[in-house]
Write a structure and sequence with these properties.
Rossmann fold; seven-stranded parallel β-sheet; 40% helix; globular; 11 helices; alpha/beta; two-stranded parallel sheet
Length: 316
C-alpha cells in the first residue's frame, strides 16, 4: 500500500494540473506543483507551488526530489510543439528517473491519426499524419520504451478534446459568449458525433495512474463523455443557462485566414479532421480496470458553466 503522506509532483498549473492536484489531495497525498513563476491562483494553502525550469534536467531533478510520482501536465505553446515539447518532456522524465519516481504523462489522441470514423481505443496503432500527431507519438513511444527498458516506471493517460472549468479556450469561445447571449464559436461540422473529455475526470484518471501500480507500463484513455454532436452539446448548455445558444462554426478556409495573424489558430488547421467526421472514443478499458466512469454530461456542463459564470469578469 502506498504511503498517504508521500509526495506527488505535478509539472504544470493549468486546468489539468489542478484537476490532478485536487484528486491527489482528496487521496491524502502531499502535492507540489511546478511552473515557471512559482505562483498560481486557486491552489489550496497546503499545496506547494514552486518555480522550476521544465527544460532543465537539473531543475526537474531538484524540484522532484523525494517524489513518489511525477505528473507531466505541462506543454509549450501550441505553435512551439515541434521545437520545445520533446525536450521538455524528456527533461521532466529525467527528473523522475533521477529520483526513482513514477512518471505519469497527460497525453491526447493525436498519435492515432485520423480514425476515419472508427472508434478510437488504446489498441489502435499510432498512425499520425499531422506534425503534432507525430510529435505526440514520438514522445509517448519514448516513455513506454523507457518503462520497458527499466529506466522508469511510467504510464500514459490520454484524453479527447476538453471541456471543463478553468479551460480558457472553451471559456472564451463558448461559455462566456453563451452566458452573455452572444454567439458561441465552434469548429467544423456541428452534427457529427464527437467525444469530449471532462477535465476533472482526466485529473482523477491521472491521479489513479500515479497511485495504482497495476496501471504502469500501459497507455490508458481516461473516462470520456458519451459521444455527442456539438449542436447537442449546445442544447445541453442552453438548458443549463436557461436561454438559447447562438452558434457559428469555423472551417478550414476561415481558420487558414485567421492563422495568417495567429500562429495558434494556424496550428489548428491540420487537426480539423477531428471535427469533420465522427470522432468517437472508447474509454472502457480504464473504466473496467479502475471502476471509474465519466461525469454525466449535464453535470459536466453545469459545473463548467458555473465556473465561467463566477469568473465572467476575467473574460476577454
Amino acid at each position: 500500500m502506498s504511503n498517504t503522506n508521500e509526495l506527488h509532483v505535478i509539472f504544470g498549473t493549468g486546468p489539468l494540473g489542478k484537476a490532478t492536484m485536487r484528486e491527489l489531495v482528496t487521496l491524502g497525498k502531499r502535492v507540489r506543483m511546478v511552473n515557471r513563476s512559482g505562483k498560481a491562483a486557486d491552489i489550496p494553502a497546503d499545496v506547494e507551488v514552486v518555480k522550476g525550469d521544465a527544460f532543465s534536467p537539473a531543475s526537474t531533478t531538484d524540484v522532484s526530489r523525494d517524489a513518489a510520482a511525477v505528473y507531466q501536465c505541462a506543454q509549450p505553446a501550441y505553435h512551439e510543439w515541434v521545437e520545445k515539447f520533446p525536450p521538455m518532456q524528456a527533461a521532466i522524465m529525467q527528473g523522475a528517473v533521477a529520483n526513482g519516481a513514477k512518471f505519469i504523462v497527460g497525453d491526447n489522441l493525436y498519435s492515432y491519426g485520423d480514425p476515419d470514423g472508427r472508434t478510437i481505443t488504446e489498441a489502435m496503432p499510432h498512425q499520425p499524419h499531422t506534425r503534432k500527431g507525430r510529435i505526440r507519438a514520438q514522445m509517448a513511444e519514448a516513455v513506454i520504451a523507457a518503462h520497458h527498458n527499466g529506466e522508469v516506471r511510467a504510464a500514459i493517460g490520454r484524453a479527447s478534446n476538453y471541456i471543463g472549468p478553468e479551460y480558457d479556450l472553451i471559456g472564451n469561445l463558448v461559455f462566456y459568449p453563451a452566458l452573455e447571449g452572444k454567439t458561441a464559436s465552434l469548429l467544423g461540422k456541428l452534427d457529427v458525433p464527437h467525444t469530449f473529455s471532462y477535465i476533472p475526470d482526466v485529473g482523477r484518471a491521472l491521479a489513479t495512474l500515479g497511485t495504482r501500480d497495476e496501471a504502469l507500463g500501459q497507455i490508458w484513455i481516461a473516462p470520456c463523455l458519451p459521444a455527442i454532436t456539438q449542436r447537442e452539446l449546445m442544447d445541453v448548455l442552453a438548458q443549463e443557462i436557461g436561454k438559447p445558444v447562438k452558434t457559428r462554426s469555423a472551417g478550414r478556409t476561415l481558420l487558414r485566414l485567421m492563422g495568417l495573424f495567429d500562429p495558434a489558430i494556424r496550428e489548428t488547421v491540420e487537426m480539423m479532421y477531428e471535427w469533420e467526421k465522427p470522432y468517437v472514443v472508447d474509454s472502457s478499458k480504464f473504466e473496467r480496470a479502475f471502476g471509474m466512469s465519466a461525469t454525466p454530461i449535464q453535470q459536466a456542463v453545469r459545473e463548467t458553466a458555473n465556473w465561467f459564470r463566477a469568473h465572467r469578469h476575467a473574460a476577454v
